[in-house]
């Protein structure tokens, strides 16, 4: 999800909602007392955390049972299905990574007559545009589109402009500027479109610079868990993986019918996932379609990236929860899973509230939870750490990598802070500056 440095209001304010929360809390305290109110809040949190714990556990069991078999599955029958494909990439100030990205795209194993590669220079202020022009002059398979400053829409706008240039393509495959896909990625992604119900396909992203810093190592493991366990589990149990925004493919006629990528969100991938489901289409996940990307190397970049993800994901919950609950295209169980997916970036906010209740209880403030058999503090960590542990096993990393799990303690704390700030800013209607994720150019 390549960032863009433009200011935009990602949502109207919901200040009345915040005031309503405070009013309900004040009234409840007045009626039941502070200790009982805090006890019932702890009870509700226990139930929520227990539900997410079993969700994490289900994903971990499914991944441990079947992922390895799918990772080793051979590529069969893809040679006979090669519809016209357009590879689209949006770039803004990416001169450190465009050479590697373009080299990987031009090395993709797909018939040249059926492949178009379009890279968008989104009003870059560094040498990105000139470098892309030089690469295009050296290889006619590469097309470069230059957007003018103020064109608007961010990554979504750039992709929509690129899509307008590829009328003959049936499938659009999206990468970010720092990505370097394996040569067989297109064949592995495209083969799923034989099924007319499939609207989009997501591949697996792997961090390639996990040794650059301790934070990058933590993100490397996070990606193992996210792609080998979480997304795989969502597909295995519910057939509801998410379109991830990069190393993903979508039908061009479908994305055009849906109005293109949404320029009014900072997480166009989650937004498109929900619009596909509401249209009766499905996303499929292929863990064997591997693509390599950079992890951020500093806490400051990590904060900006995860804040953007939380801000956009939380907005999608506010925008789509009613249509999801009323659509005829999802079963009751599928609606529940989709709502849990939408709540993912609200759970850290609840975790922060849970930790606050634990601290207050240590000082004698608050009543015992009605669900006294469930340990609130244990549930905060048990589910995610189960997924992380299974991800380490499936990722076939060396044994000593298990010590990297310690790095998730501060990362978990940062996720609480970023998600809470994103929630408060989103509810208050704070304008959001979408800052670009800085690259290092590591290979």
Automatic annotation (TrEMBL):
<keyword id="KW-0812">Transmembrane</keyword>
<feature type="transmembrane region" description="Helical">
    <location>
        <begin position="40"/>
        <end position="64"/>
    </location>
</feature>
<dbReference type="GO" id="GO:0016757">
    <property type="term" value="F:glycosyltransferase activity"/>
</dbReference>
<dbReference type="Pfam" id="PF13641">
    <property type="entry name" value="Glyco_tranf_2_3"/>
</dbReference>
<dbReference type="GO" id="GO:0016020">
    <property type="term" value="C:membrane"/>
</dbReference>
<feature type="transmembrane region" description="Helical">
    <location>
        <begin position="16"/>
        <end position="34"/>
    </location>
</feature>
<feature type="transmembrane region" description="Helical">
    <location>
        <begin position="401"/>
        <end position="424"/>
    </location>
</feature>
<protein>
    <recommendedName>
        <fullName>Beta-monoglucosyldiacylglycerol synthase</fullName>
        <ecNumber>2.4.1.336</ecNumber>
    </recommendedName>
</protein>
<comment type="similarity">
    <text>Belongs to the glycosyltransferase 2 family.</text>
</comment>
<dbReference type="InterPro" id="IPR050321">
    <property type="entry name" value="Glycosyltr_2/OpgH_subfam"/>
</dbReference>
<keyword id="KW-0472">Membrane</keyword>
<feature type="transmembrane region" description="Helical">
    <location>
        <begin position="370"/>
        <end position="394"/>
    </location>
</feature>
<keyword id="KW-0808">Transferase</keyword>
<dbReference type="InterPro" id="IPR029044">
    <property type="entry name" value="Nucleotide-diphossugar_trans"/>
</dbReference>
<keyword id="KW-1133">Transmembrane helix</keyword>
<feature type="transmembrane region" description="Helical">
    <location>
        <begin position="340"/>
        <end position="364"/>
    </location>
</feature>
<keyword id="KW-0328">Glycosyltransferase</keyword>
<keyword id="KW-0460">Magnesium</keyword>
């Amino acid at each position: 999800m390549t960032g863009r440095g433009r200011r935009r209001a990602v949502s109207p304010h919901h200040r009345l909602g915040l005031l309503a929360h405070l009013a309900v809390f004040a009234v409840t305290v007045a009626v039941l007392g502070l200790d009982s109110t805090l006890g019932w809040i702890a009870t509700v949190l226990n139930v929520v955390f227990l539900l997410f714990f079993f969700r994490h556990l289900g994903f971990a069991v499914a991944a441990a049972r079947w992922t390895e078999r799918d990772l080793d599955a051979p590529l069969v029958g893809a040679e006979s299905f090669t519809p016209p494909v357009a590879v689209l990439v949006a770039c803004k100030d990416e001169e450190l990574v465009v050479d590697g990205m373009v080299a990987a795209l031009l090395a993709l194993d797909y018939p040249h007559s059926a492949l178009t590669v379009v890279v968008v220079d989104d009003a870059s202020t560094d040498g990105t545009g000139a470098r892309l022009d030089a690469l295009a002059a050296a290889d006619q398979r590469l097309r470069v589109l230059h957007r003018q400053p103020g064109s608007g829409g961010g990554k979504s706008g750039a992709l929509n402009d690129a899509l307008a240039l590829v009328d003959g393509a049936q499938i659009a495959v999206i990468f970010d500027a720092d990505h370097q896909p394996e040569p067989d990625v297109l064949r592995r992604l495209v083969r799923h479109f034989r099924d007319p119900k499939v609207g989009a396909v997501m591949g697996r992203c792997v961090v390639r610079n996990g040794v650059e810093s301790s934070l990058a190592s933590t993100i490397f493991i996070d990606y193992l868990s996210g792609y080998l366990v979480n997304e795989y589990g969502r597909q295995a149990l519910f057939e509801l993986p998410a379109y991830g925004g990069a190393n993903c493919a979508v039908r061009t006629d479908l994305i055009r019918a849906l109005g293109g990528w949404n320029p009014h969100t900072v997480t166009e991938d989650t937004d498109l996932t929900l619009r596909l489901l509401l249209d009766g289409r499905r996303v499929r996940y292929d863990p064997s379609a591997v693509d390599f990307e950079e992890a951020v190397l500093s806490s400051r970049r990590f904060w900006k990236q995860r804040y953007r993800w939380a801000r956009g994901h939380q907005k999608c919950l506010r925008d789509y929860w009613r249509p999801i609950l009323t659509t005829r295209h999802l079963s009751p169980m599928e609606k529940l899973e989709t709502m849990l997916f939408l709540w993912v970036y609200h759970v850290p906010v609840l975790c922060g509230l849970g930790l606050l209740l634990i601290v207050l209880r240590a000082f004698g403030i608050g009543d015992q939870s009605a669900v006294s058999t469930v340990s609130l503090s244990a549930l905060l960590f048990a589910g995610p750490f189960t997924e992380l542990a299974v991800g380490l096993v499936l990722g076939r990393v060396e044994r000593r990598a298990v010590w990297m799990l310690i790095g998730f303690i501060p990362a978990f704390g940062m996720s609480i802070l970023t998600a809470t700030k994103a929630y408060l800013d989103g509810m208050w209607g704070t304008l959001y500056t979408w800052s670009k994720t800085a690259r290092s150019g590591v290979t």
